[in-house]
Amino acid sequence: MRICVTGARGMLGQQVVETALSLGHTVLSWVRPEVDITQMESLFERCKLDAPEAIVNCAAWTDVDGAETNVSAAYLSNHIGAANVATVAASQGIKLVHISTDFVYPGDIHRPLIESDTTGPKSVYGQSKLDGETAVLQNCPNAVVIRTGYIFGHHGPNLIDKISAGIKSGYNMPFVTDQWITPTGTPLLADASIRFCQANASGIYHVTQAGGCSTYEMARYIAQLTSGTGSITSTTLDAWEPIQSARCEAVGRQLAKRPVYSVLNTDKYSNFANIEPISWEAAIRSHLLG
Ligand SMILES: NC(=O)c1ccc[n+]([C@@H]2O[C@H](COP(=O)([O-])OP(=O)(O)OC[C@H]3O[C@@H](n4cnc5c(N)ncnc54)[C@H](OP(=O)(O)O)[C@@H]3O)[C@@H](O)[C@H]2O)c1
To answer: Given this model, what pLDDT does residue 244 score?
Structure first.
């Protein structure tokens, strides 16, 4: 296929390009400033020129905490930009795969979430991504929206590498036992994106590694795989703020509210692709140890 990837310089975008090329597809990497998804006219012209059969939209404002204070910039890329890509894709008969997030959920239900569960973002980033999803499916009804969470990969800074580096540097890092996620590797997401490019599927799909964990369990697992004098200690969301600002240099501040529980049920994707994603532990092990 002839596939265009927006945000092709980002962590996921680079992996999608790499995976698509390895599968023998023709890939056009769309990066700013040449392709800015907020610029409808130039996007339209570029699309006519490159004539893709599919677009994977990895472009987004991804600074979750920064979105709280840069609201219009976050909405511009995540809502207006996504809407533009969908309009252009629909007008030229191009398959669109759009990447979204588990931050669209409020996170107050303590069981793996299904695609039809009620959304209710707690942050500007989450709301801007939810508005983007809605616009994508309105403007391009045969698009696929992938909701995922906590991405890590070899092409960008991520929490897995930060924790591993913190252990090597001897930091003592607190992580909470009462916030649940599924860390997900970019290879799984890239593979899913390409599968959707070629498939007659549409609508929302959850794509994550199998299983779920507290951020404390995730950090402990990374510490077990990393040689160093650092350590992981447990805390709770209530106690997080004071401890974090005093001691957690590796992770930084959290201005935006995160969902407390955002483990996603991926049965719909497994049924579509006829595969079970590997566990979050196996994906982290493969990322850190190869
Ligand atoms: N990272 C996570 O943990 C996570 C979790 C769940 C979902 N997601 C979603 O996964 C997708 C990929 O995220 P990522 O981690 O790969 O993010 P990333 O590394 O920050 O990459 C995002 C890319 O989008 C580009 N971009 C931003 N606004 C743009 C615009 N208006 N026009 C064109 N390009 C634009 C950026 O370009 P520049 O290089 O020019 O800045 C950047 O290269 C996003 O949709 C994100 O919301 C991420």
So the answer is: 56
Compute, in angstroms, the gap from residue 8 CA to the centroid of ligand 1: 9
Cβ atoms of residues 67 and 121 within 8 Å: no
What pLDDT is recorded for position 241? 64
pTM: 0.96
Nearest to 147 by CA among 157, 137, 161, 156: 137
> Among the atoms of ligand 1, which is closest to the Cα of residue 14?
16
Indicate the domain borders of the chain.
2-158+181-212+262-279
pLDDT of residue 257: 86
Query: Which CATH class name applies to 2-158+181-212+262-279?
Result: alpha beta
Residue that has been written with the tokens 């994977």 in this structure: 56
DSSP 20-37: HHHTT-EEEEE-TTTS-T
Output the CA 239–ligand 1 centroid distance in Å: 31
Q: What is the pLDDT of residues 199-214, one digit of tens each?
A: 999 999 999 999 999 9
Task: Name the phi and psi angles at 96, rounded to 5.
Answer: -120, 130
CA of residue 268 relative to chain centroid, distance: 18
Residue 150 appears among annotated catalytic residues: no
Q: Which one is predicted more confidently, 174 or 55?
A: 55
Out of 125, 171, 221, 261, the active site residue is 125
Containing 204, the helix (H) or strand (E) segment is strand 203-206
C-alpha 134 to ligand 1 mean position (Å)? 18
Query: Both tokens of residue 95?
Result: 């398959």
- Closest residue by CA, ligand 1 atom 43: 10
